[in-house]
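Subgroup meeting minutes
Present: P.N., E.W., G.H.
Scribe: E.W.

1. P.N. recapped why we're keeping a running log of single-chain structure predictions: easier to compare across weeks, and new members can see raw inputs and outputs side by side.
2. G.H. added today's entry (405 aa).
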Amino acid sequence: MSSVPTQAAHEAMRLASAPRVPSGRRPHAPRVPHICHLVHGLTVGGAERLALRMGEHLPADQYRVSYLCLDELGTWGTELRAVGGHVHLLGRRPGLDWRCARRLGAHLRREGIDLVHAHQYTPFFYVVAARHFHRRPPILFTEHGRWFPDFPRPKRMLFNRLFMGSRDRAVGVGEAVRRALVDNEGLPPDRVSVIYNGVDLAPYRACLSDRQGIRTRVRADLGVSESELVLAQIARLDDLKDHATAVRAMSRIAAAVPSSLLLIVGDGPERAIIQKLIGELGVGRNVRLIGTRCDVPEILQAADLFLLSSKSEGIPLTVIEAMAAKLPVVATDVGGLSEIVVPGVTGWLMPAGNDAALAAAAIELLQNASQRAAFGEQGFARACERFDENRMHREYQALYAELLA
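Output recorded in log:
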């Protein structure tokens, strides 16, 4: 859903091209700290995109950067490896794989890694376990979102309290995520902070300079007429995103606004189920699945409203991107969405799973162009003020420096 990997490929090669320093040998040139981003895999997704952007924005003369995948390389990992980026695969087996933890520990020692940035809980768990086999670098754990339902897990809480090191830190991408890390994961409150997700606003500002031209071109490419009112939903086709509720909402919206059309951008394991529901509800003319796209800023310019029906979220990048594109937002009131969307100012938040409420909010906006424009302007201002990725990178780099000191 993003062009990040192709933009980052050569940068990753530059960042990761420093030669390895064999264990026990003294380098001839001053050694720079080695930061390793540990992820499930570099598939197309928000957390993975942020990990790539964080690596890309580290000064090459101050840090060496590599990526380590637990489960799969993914599309972006394959691309980076093809151009020489340092991307390694551990090949974790199903269940609790202690051999994977040992391999991870050996990798930390062999590569001379000074800081591990673990994205999501499972990578955090494995690097904490691995650290007791070999090298013991500090860990920064970023929790990008929460599963649904979210509740305390006593075994995890005990593990975290026993084995989280004194130099380790955790970051929640929003206040709601931070509270979950403290309340449901048992992490010490004084070692869990908030760094809000950010996006690169430059492509959105560029699109706004030719908004009507881009809108006309993209709509023509998609076969969408100028008279249609377009809702966009950009999310992996996964159960947590609850596209079924969005499709049910569209059956209500289409009855009130026959010219409405929902464009579902993304792909994933739920695609066949969603397609089947579209047929069962008879909304094939009003809902289209257009797959993964690399032109998200342009797609958003072709839309009139952004829709998100998730059961659980952290701080979703796609909502920030929609606001950066001056779109009003109708979303579910879960996770950190209330930290992004201001009801009655930049959009509306409705209960999760309530297709009737989502439809009512969307219909109100589709029938009121001036309100859509006002919400869009306020959303753009909020995205620029609070969710610019430059602020995010500064805060993470300050935390890296603190942990490496």
